[in-house]
Amino acid sequence: MTFTLHPRLAADSHWVGELSLCQVRLINDQRFPWLLLIPQRAHMTELHQLDSDDYIQLFTEIRQLAAPFQQLTQADKLNIATLGNMVPQLHLHLVARHPQDAAWPGPVWGHGQAEPYSDEDLTAQINLIRRQLPGLS
Q1: Nearest-CA neighbor of 36 among 101, 131, 109?
Q2: Rounded distance, CA 38 to CA 35, Å?
Q3: Are the beta carbons of 22 and 89 closer than 8 angstroms?
Q4: Which of 85, 86, 111 minimizes the C-alpha distance to 95?
Q5: pLDDT above 70: percentage of residues in the chain
Q6: Residue by residue, what is the 3-state secondary structure of the chain?
Q7: CATH code for the part of the protein at 7-132
Q8: Is the distance from CB of 133 to CB of 72 less than 8 angstroms?
Q9: N or C: which end of the chain has fewer CB within 10 A?
Q10: 10 Å Cβ neighbour count for 39?
Q11: What is the Cα 95 distance to its own chain's centre?
Q12: Residues 58, 75, 100: CA angle, nearest 5 degrees
């Protein structure tokens, strides 16, 4: 079976790079620095469906990106979550949070309308992330 990115994830985010297991994408909402890690395995909807090696690798990749992403964004809090209520494909959110952000202290999901990056800002943000986060190809 071949991995295929869910259309909603493709529409709401932009490719940043890949790690051993995960595709890394940036959510297209400039209000919140927000990455997705999507294990490139077909038909996965839950963490417990990953085999043991992939499960360990996923959390290794989260740890690999979490501290540098938090430092890059100067976040006071880094929210790491899985939901899957709207998109069943297994994916994890890394959302950099600040007390002054639009949704603080509540969740970012469903808060207002997304404010997409301009083409110029999107390119700059992706390039910055690729330079600052280790191991992305």
Answers
A1: 109
A2: 10
A3: no
A4: 111
A5: 100
A6: CCCCCCHHHHHHEEEEEECCCEEEEEECCCCCCEEEEEECCCCCCCHHHCCHHHHHHHHHHHHHHHHHHHHHHCCCEEEEECCCCCCCCCCEEEEEECCCCCCCCCCCCCCCCCCCCCHHHHHHHHHHHHHHCCCCC
A7: 3.30.428.10
A8: yes
A9: N
A10: 23
A11: 7
A12: 135
One-letter amino acid at 39 equals P
* Mean pLDDT value across residues 26-39: 97
Both tokens of 16, joined, read 């940043």
- 20 in Cβ contact with 96 (< 8 Å): no
pTM higher than 0.85: yes
User: Phi/psi of residue 21, each to 5°?
Assistant: -105, -40
